[in-house]
């Protein structure tokens, strides 16, 4: 059997970057989204270095800069000051927030750690002492309990996609799953109230369906029409108008429509914000401890889950009012 090795290569990238991305996929089992983010960051970094070092002509557009010829000697010449110059560039000329710059720091640290420890290309790691920008923690944006109920009740029952959309929103609001996880749900992976999904990094995890999810699921299955779908597409729970597995963009547009129809700000709430909503409501009303919430959400690090331990403004107001001295 012949294999087209070229399809495995990123010909527009330095060989070291291609090898690093393959390492992330095959050894570290990173998700496609994570790998794409690393690729974007490193492409931007090396294009910047080419400009910073005066290696390209002034009439060449930034996006057209060829970085495929960057070799090991170039990598060995990179210093800590180059990394900070890059971070300054993305802040001043790309308007990168502290969050975006922190992600780029993580990318650079991971890449140079690989070059130093795995690929053995460099003898000194320039990112070893690279500091990440200070990030002010932000509370996640989420719907309140009443807003969540209002959203579900706002759906038009006469709409042909009512049962499907209601089921999707119910899954988001009750299970806190990721957008990619929802789009990838297969019917055969549902066993009673247990759903097996493929999460971040291709890791399979279990999601438990509560009564609201089961009712919405059964209602959707009773009207779900897969008669025109291919054998492969029939496996997927949520189908589009074209009888294909529903894609992420379709879900994003659908959620924005229903959020707007419910009277909320369409730009503010996304599928990920509905995930925030589920996590916040579980933590606030379900007496769920932080470790259990970590498992439910499929977080690798508990530090990611800790953003849901915030207290909303009403709780803060009630706490102040409960002070016995408030009556004096």
From TrEMBL:
- Indicate yes or no for the key word Cytoplasm: yes
Where is this protein primarily located? cytoplasm
Instruction: Write out the entry's keywords from A to Z.
Output: Cell cycle, Cell division, Chromosome partition, Cytoplasm, DNA integration, DNA recombination, DNA-binding
InterPro entries in the cross-refs:
CB, DNA_brk_join_enz, Integrase-like_cat_sf, Integrase_catalytic, Integrase_recombinase_N, Integrase_SAM-like_N, Tyrosine_recombinase_XerCD
Task: Identify the domain of life.
Answer: Bacteria
**Keyword hit for Transmembrane:** no
* MF term (GO), any: DNA binding
Write one Pfam family the protein is assigned to.
Phage_integrase
Family as reported in the entry's similarity comment: Belongs to the 'phage' integrase family.
Function recorded in the entry: Site-specific tyrosine recombinase, which acts by catalyzing the cutting and rejoining of the recombining DNA molecules.
The protein depicted here goes by the name: Phage integrase family protein
Native species of this protein? Clostridium butyricum E4 str. BoNT E BL5262
């Amino acid at each position: 059997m012949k294999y087209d090795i070229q399809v495995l290569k990123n010909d527009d990238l330095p060989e070291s970057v291609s090898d690093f991305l393959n390492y992330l996929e095959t050894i570290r089992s990173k998700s496609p989204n994570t790998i794409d983010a690393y690729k974007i960051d490193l492409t931007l970094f090396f294009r910047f270095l080419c400009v910073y070092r005066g290696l390209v002509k002034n009439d060449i557009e930034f996006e057209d800069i060829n970085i495929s010829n960057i070799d090991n000697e170039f990598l060995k010449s990179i210093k800590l000051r180059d990394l900070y110059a890059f971070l300054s560039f993305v802040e001043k000329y790309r308007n990168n927030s502290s969050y975006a710059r922190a992600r780029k720091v993580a990318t650079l640290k991971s890449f140079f750690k690989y070059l130093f420890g795995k690929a053995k290309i460099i003898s000194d790691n320039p990112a070893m002492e690279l500091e990440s920008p200070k990030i002010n923690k932000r509370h996640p944006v989420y719907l309140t309990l009443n807003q969540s109920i209002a959203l579900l009740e706002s759906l038009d029952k006469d709409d042909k996609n009512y049962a499907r959309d209601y089921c999707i929103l119910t899954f988001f609001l009750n299970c806190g799953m990721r957008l990619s996880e929802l789009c990838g749900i297969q019917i055969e992976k549902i066993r009673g109230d247990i759903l097996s999904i493929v999460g971040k990094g291709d890791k399979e995890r279990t999601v438990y369906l509560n009564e609201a999810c089961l009712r919405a699921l059964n209602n959707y299955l009773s009207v779900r029409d897969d008669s025109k779908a291919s054998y492969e597409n029939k496996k997927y729970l949520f189908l589009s108008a074209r009888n294909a597995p529903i894609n992420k963009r379709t879900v994003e547009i659908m959620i924005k429509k229903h959020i707007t129809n419910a009277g909320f700000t369409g730009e503010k709430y996304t599928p990920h914000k509905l995930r925030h909503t589920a996590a916040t409501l579980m933590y606030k009303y379900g007496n769920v401890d932080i470790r259990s919430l970590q498992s439910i959400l499929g977080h690798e690090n508990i530090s990611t889950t800790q953003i849901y331990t915030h207290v909303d403004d009403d709780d803060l107001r009630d706490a102040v009012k409960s002070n016995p001295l408030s009556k004096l």
